[in-house]
Amino acid sequence: MNQAYITLEAGREKSLLRKHPWIFSRAIKQVSGTPNLGDTVDVFSAKGVWLARAAYSPKSQIRARVWTFEQSESIDLHFFQKKLSDALQARQSLINNSSAFRLIAGESDGLPGLTIDLYKDVLVAQFLAAGVERHKQLILQALKTILPNSPVYERSDVEVRKKEGLKPTTGWLTEPASSQIWIDEAGQKILVDIEKGHKTGFYLDQRDNRLIASSYVKGKSVLNCFSYTGTFGLHALQAGALHLTNLDVSQLALDTADLIYQKNAIDQQRYTNLNADVFKQLRQYKENQQQFDVIILDPPKFAENKGQVVKACRGYKDINMLALQLLKPGGILLTFSCSGLIDAELFQKVVADAALDAKVEAQVIEKLTQAKDHPVQLHYPEGFYLKGLVVRKTR
């Protein structure tokens, strides 16, 4: 048994018995010993029954995150090597159309607070919780044994680290390599900037949805909102879209889209990159009575915490209402939410309310989710965050 351990309040062991990996501060009756930030602690029920081994985080409401429910399992180099090796093997059997994929998806891969993406031969890691921060060097050592020729860049510049008592940090954890990487996705060349780009540089979770979207665009005018580096649009153009408009507030992202389109031999006359605020521009299109055949809405996360859910729903409703008004009859809306706090049922209700306010009728013809390399552990439903709807405007 580890020197430090925690004892739960009576009845608070139920979630652990269901294999959920989080232990909240209010569930803890007593902390024995003096565990430091990220230290491994054993977890006992109020009756003294061993339940789990977890990483301790004294400043977070999630006071401990479970490493293992097996009492014989130690949190050591072998533990991390096994987790990484299992995850890599699973991805290699799932992903056959891309040179980039998510290697580790946090709790869903048994490594709470850790995100690792592989871009061709470069790894980008986010250490978002106290436990993985505490064991960063062991994890790097394990990565070196599993993927010995892959340099590692850290993108732990996420707000959630503050809740864990950690400061944001970025930089190379190994010998530096190029921070701009060309990856392949379904035959297309895509430039990823792991240093300046969003998240770890790219939205790998939308891989499957980019291909699905391209099946609706042949001979159509397409508006790609919150376009980032234009990869929804890239697949749309290659699938025969008549004209594409990428709309984003970042000129750097739109300039990257230009580079990507040039690399893929896209005629410049087939697309327009517009630097503008999506909410304002959609209203401008409405005033100008401009319409599109296909509209893609892939906004950033609107709700970071429960207190922002109501405001987030208003934002989703606003942009979906405008998009539905801008669609031609029979047009297609692909709309997404990556806010984990807004579940699929609520999101569909928001879009339905948007249709009512837009005074249009529409049908859901397809439901979308995150790519296969972003699995959802059955006992950790919080791993499901990306939901999408393909909506056809009927009148």
UniProtKB/TrEMBL annotation:
InterPro entries: PUA, PUA-like_sf, PUA_sf, RlmI-like_PUA, SAM-dep_methyl-trfase, SAM-dependent_MTases_sf. Keywords: Cytoplasm, Methyltransferase, RNA-binding, rRNA processing, S-adenosyl-L-methionine, Transferase. One of its GO terms (molecular function) is methyltransferase activity. It is found in: Cytoplasm. Its EC number is 2.1.1.-. Coiled coil: none annotated. It comes from Catenovulum sediminis. One of its GO terms (biological process) is methylation. Belongs to the methyltransferase superfamily. RlmI family. This is Class I SAM-dependent methyltransferase. The lineage of its organism: Bacteria, Pseudomonadati, Pseudomonadota, Gammaproteobacteria, Alteromonadales. It is an enzyme of class 2 (transferase).
